[in-house]
Structures are given as C-alpha cells and as structure tokens.
Amino acid sequence: MVQTTDIPVMALKEQITENHNEFLESLHHRFLDEERKAALQRFESVGFPTKKDEEYKYTSLKEITEKEYNFFPKESHNITKEQLDQLHLGEENFDWITFVNGKLHKELSKVSIENVEFLSFNYALNDEKHKDVFDKYFNTIAGDKSAFTNLNQAYCKYGFFLKVPKNVVIEKPIHVFYISQNQEENTFYNTRNLLIVEEGAKVEIIESHHNFDSTYVLTNSVTEIFTYPNAKADWHKLQNDNDTSYLIDNTFAKQEKDSLTTVNTFSFGGKLVRNNLDFIQNGSNINSFMNGITIIGKDQLVDHHTAVHHNQPNCESYQNYKGIFDGKSHGVFNGKVFVDKIAQKTNAYQQNNNVLLSEGATIDTKPQLEIFADDVKCSHGCTVGQLNEDALFYLRARGISKKEAQALLLYAFANDAMQNIDIEPLKEKISKLLAEKLEVDIEF
C-alpha cells in the first residue's frame, strides 16, 4: 500500500507572489510601493532558506512553507475581557496595547503615556508628516539581510511606531499583545515595530503573541530599535503560544555611545520559533544584554540566532541563554560576536547552557567569536548535559521527591537568566511559567 502526503495546491512562496498586487491595492499609502516591490523581487530571487543554508542548517521550515495561508485576516473577533485578563501579568500600573487580527483596538488598550509619538504602524505609514522619519529609520538596520526581512518589507502592515523624545522617561512598562482569533483559515501576519529612544530617554516594552484558534498562524515579525546616547531601551519577548503557532522574529538594535539596550527572550510555547537578534554598537561605552530561557517539549523547536557587532572601543556585551528540552523537542543556539580591529577594550561574554531531559530531545549549539582587535576580554562557552546526580541525591536525602528535586534544580538552573529583569510582575510571571512547565509548586 502506497502512502500519500497531502501537499497544498499552492505553497507559501507561490501565494506570496499571487497576493502581492492585491495587498498593495488594499493599502492607502503609496510612498513604500516601489520599496515593497523591490523587496518582493529580492525574496523571489532566493526563496525561503533550506537546511542547505548555513544559517538554517539545523532548522527545517518545510512544515511552515508547505501550508496555505490567508493574507487578509478577518477583523471580526469575540475576545472577552476574561480572556484578555488571563494574558495580563497583573500589571495594573502598566500600559498595554492590544492588536487583534492585526488591527489596533483602543477599547482593549490602556495608553496613558504622554509627550511621545505613538501610532499604529499602518497609521504612521499613512501619515505624511512621518514620511521623513520613515525615510531616516525604516529598514535601515533590518535591510535586505534575509528572505524573511525582505518578505516583511514587502507585506508589513501591522505593528506600532513609538518615538520617545529626548530625556523623556516612560515610567510604566508597555505590554504589546498580538492576538489572532476567529480565523477560519491558516493566517499569515507580517508585523513591524519601530522604536526610537532619543538621548537620555528610557522605555520598557513587553511583547507577546497569542493564537486563540486551532488553525495555524505564521507571524513574521521585524523590530528595529534605535537607542541614542545615554538612553535605555529594554525589550522583553514572552513567547508562550499554542501548538498551532509559528513565529519568525527578527530584531535589530542599533546603539549610540553610552546607551544600554536589553532584549530578553523567554520561549515556552509555539510549534516552531526562530529568533534572529542583531545588535550593532555604533559608539563607545555601550552595554548590550541578551538573555534567554527556553523550556519546551513534545516536538517543539526553538532556534536562537544572535549577533553582536562591536564596532567601537570600550563596549560590553553579555549573552546568557539557558535551555531545558524534553520529549522530542529540538533547540538551536548560534551566537556570534564580531569585534572590529578598532574595538579595543571590548568585553564580550557569551554562554549557552542546556539540559536534556529525554533521549529524544536534541540541541545544536555553536557559540562563535571573530576578533580582530588585540586588547579585548572575550569568552564563550556551551554545555549540554543532564541533571547532577549528586545534587539530586542531596535533595532526596532530605525528604524531597525525585520529581520535585529535579524541578527545583532545573528552576535554579534557569533562574539566573532573568536576574536583570527589573519589572517585578514580569519576573513573577516568568517564575510561575517556569514552575508550571516544571510541574512544581514554588512560593513567590
């Protein structure tokens, strides 16, 4: 008996070309049309990456690219307040922005920030007075680096634009929700975020994606962060979606002198998650922080690809990624640090530690350094292993069950990757998610 596999009539690459003219006609603005067409041509010339591409050597996208998707999500929804409340972190003093099926819903948002420019991305594109801002910033660091950034440029519509003026400190963290619901077909979103933090300003963003349907959602997200002198920008990614969700996240951060930028990535859910993170240091005395915690099981895949470009002297970067893998899950970490010949006195730290809880779980890890300066302090390392038997015995000798002892050790293992979170409700939420994933009761 011959087995057959149902292959969609039109795979994603063909759908992209088919839908582009209709997509352009649906937009009200025109000043990006030529750029969109050029981006689509660049994408078509190379197509989606395969495992033959070095950057996707360990990650197959075949499951994603052979499905059919709707490029025009239904706007109607029936999200309830109770459903939204479950997504919140108990952040009564936060601001939040809620996108449902790509559209910003003010009635589901709470925005009290003042003295800043905040617009939905689509509205900003339609606003002629922001054309100069987009000419200056849009796609200048994301560029045409990959098939997914080109694809996003060709189709981006959803997301937000935020500009924090000089010396403005936004005291409240801003939680941005991207929700998909009431979609009868697989749905494709290209979200785009642009954050500009001017000199002496400060802001903290929390980003999370949620699919409420049993149909598949593919989100191709691009975020560009510009941090100016003496400014601070923190971006926390809370990835805890369901098993019918795919996320390709591309985040680019460009920093000027004396600035601090942090991107924390907490990956607990989603069928396939790929995080591409690129830091560009464009001045002296810059600090860049990247932390990640991944806890997955079943047949989930989470792939972290990071790059830090040390282009100026007297700068620091810190990467600390922890992974816990169960079932037949697969983790990937590829971290790169580039130190230019003029970037003397660079201090770069990179560490990736992983625990495999089952024989079917796998991790491919590859930390890399490319150093062209001679007066630097750079270190990198990775570990892959199982729990320490002596530590387990120590806990069990004190009356703790094997399951609880394992969970406590794993909690302690992952915990140090979230020590620089200064938002207490977020830190508590991550701790609770850790405890839930590890199936242990921990007092907070």
What is the strand and helix layout of this fold?
Layout: H1 12-26, H2 33-46, H3 62-65, H4 81-87, E1 95-100, E2 103-104, E3 117-120, H5 121-126, H6 131-137, H7 147-155, E4 160-164, E5 174-180, E6 187-197, E7 202-211, E8 217-227, E9 232-240, E10 245-255, E11 260-269, E12 272-281, E13 287-296, E14 301-310, E15 316-325, E16 330-339, E17 347-356, E18 362-371, E19 377-385, H8 389-396, H9 402-415, H10 424-438
Helix pairs in contact: 1-2, 2-7, 8-9, 9-10
Describe the structure in your own words:
This is Iron-regulated ABC transporter permease protein SufD. The structure is a single chain. The protein has 444 residues and is α/β, with parallel strands linked by helices. It contains ten helices and 19 strands. It has helices spanning 12-26, 33-46, 62-65, 81-87, 121-126, 131-137, 147-155, 389-396, 402-415, 424-438, and strands spanning 95-100, 103-104, 117-120, 160-164, 174-180, 187-197, 202-211, 217-227, 232-240, 245-255, 260-269, 272-281, 287-296, 301-310, 316-325, 330-339, 347-356, 362-371, 377-385.
